[in-house]
Specification:
alpha/beta; Isopropylmalate Dehydrogenase; 10-stranded mixed β-sheet; two-stranded antiparallel sheet; 14 helices; 14 strands; 42% helix; binds 3-isopropylmalic acid; binds magnesium ion
């Protein structure tokens, strides 16, 4: 297959981790006989510095012309004083919105070799686990182009009062929940809608929509949970969750929390999909690790590239329809962890002795396992 992938490294550790994700994709291309063309574009602070805008027109157009977008991270203290519409983060938010990527898939799975890196006791993991082993495997589905991120906001009273608005339409909720029901039907059949329906009117609408859709998915068991309770349940019984569907802001917060249970925020990948990408193969999507730009460790070969590499696996699966190739990337990641290699963020917990590896070495090892799955 021929595919064109837009490469948006961004700021901080973004360029380092996307370089390793690209190596993994190049290894896939070599082993399976595909041709992937990468087209680099500026975004975030890097784009601000070069062109004065966090999302240059050329970047947006370039992404629209590609089959998928591989994204690193944006932001950093250097740009903290920029006006709100010139912050690096605005580049990412505008890109998600412009490409119509409303469904953000954030799988949080505890990989066996990383058991020690999960802060929970065995008993807590086992009690809620779907297979009685100390593990969990959940998919957080975050609404990505609506809610308080995009509602009206501003200042009043001479700037001494500020407001942000959480607003959702039936249609916005419905299209996200359809993805969630479908995902649950293909997994363990459990969907938990997380909200604050005891306080927020928009949350009550989420519940109405979920109940309207429920009869269409007889294989899925629907539950509701308040977000404060969910934040607590994640820490005491994460195995109870299969698919969590929630709003933009709640999903942002809960996915960071869940990532800490997988060992490190550096582990979590994500896929952001729009209408068409869900209907068939080979459609547009944006793929990014959920972590930020980590300016404190940028350029030191310390970043964990696994979230970015696993995002590349999601790109293969959801935008290019290459399921076998995606699985090859995921099993290469697992294998390198099983062999004891650990990036800096994970090394503290590994027993008995981690084989410490920097960003580039982790990426090289994984690309090597993709190219030569039998090992040598
Ligand atoms: C994320 C990030 C972004 C978000 C920031 C960088 C705007 O935290 O992808 O989780 O809040 O969506
Ligand atoms: Mg976040």
């Amino acid at each position: 297959m021929d595919a064109v992938i837009a490469l948006l490294p961004g700021d901080g550790i973004g360029p380092e981790v996307t370089a390793e994700a690209r190596k993994a994709l190049d290894a896939v291309a070599g082993r399976f006989g595909h041709a992937f063309e990468f087209r680099p574009y500026l975004i975030g602070g890097a784009a601000l510095d070069a062109q004065g805008l966090p999302l240059p027109r050329e970047t947006l157009k370039g992404c629209g012309d590609c089959d998928a977008v591989l994204f690193g991270a944006v932001g950093g203290p250097r740009w903290d004083k920029e006006a709100p519409d010139k912050r690096p983060e605005r580049g990412l938010l505008s890109l998600r919105k412009a490409l119509g990527l409303y469904a953000n898939l954030r799988p949080a799975t505890l990989l066996k070799p990383l058991r020690e890196a999960c802060p929970l006791k065995d008993a807590l993991l086992e009690a809620s686990s779907f297979d009685a082993s100390p593990t969990f495997d959940m998919l957080i589905l975050r609404e990505l182009t609506g809610g308080i991120y995009f509602g009206s906001r501003g200042r009043k009273d001479d700037g001494r009062s500020a407001y942000d608005t959480e607003s959702y339409s039936y249609r916005e909720i419905e299209r996200l929940l359809r993805v969630a029901f479908d995902a649950a039907a293909g997994r363990r059949g459990k969907l938990c809608v997380v909200d604050k329906a005891n306080v927020l009117e928009s949350s009550r609408l989420w519940r109405e929509v979920a109940k309207d859709l429920e009869p269409g998915y007889p294989g899925v068991k629907l539950d509701f949970m308040y977000v404060d309770n969910c934040a607590m349940q994640l820490l005491r019984a994460p195995g109870q969750f299969d698919v969590i569907a929630t709003s933009n802001l709640f999903g942002d917060i809960l996915s960071d929390e869940a990532s800490a249970l997988t060992g490190s925020i550096g582990m979590l990948p994500s896929a952001s999909l729009g209408e068409e990408s869900l209907k068939g193969l080979g459609r547009m999507g944006l793929y990014e690790p959920i972590h930020g730009s980590a300016p404190d460790i940028a350029g030191q070969d310390k970043a964990n590239p696994l979230g970015a590499i696993l995002s590349a696996a999601m790109l293969l699966r959801y935008s290019l329809g290459l399921a076998e190739e995606a699985a090859a990337v995921e099993s290469a990641v697992l294998r390198v962890l099983e062999e004891g290699y650990r990036s800096v963020d994970l090394a503290t917990f590994a027993t008995p002795h981690p084989r410490r590896a920097g960003t580039r070495k982790m990426g090289n090892l994984i690309a090597g396992r993709i190219s030569r799955p039998a090992g040598d």
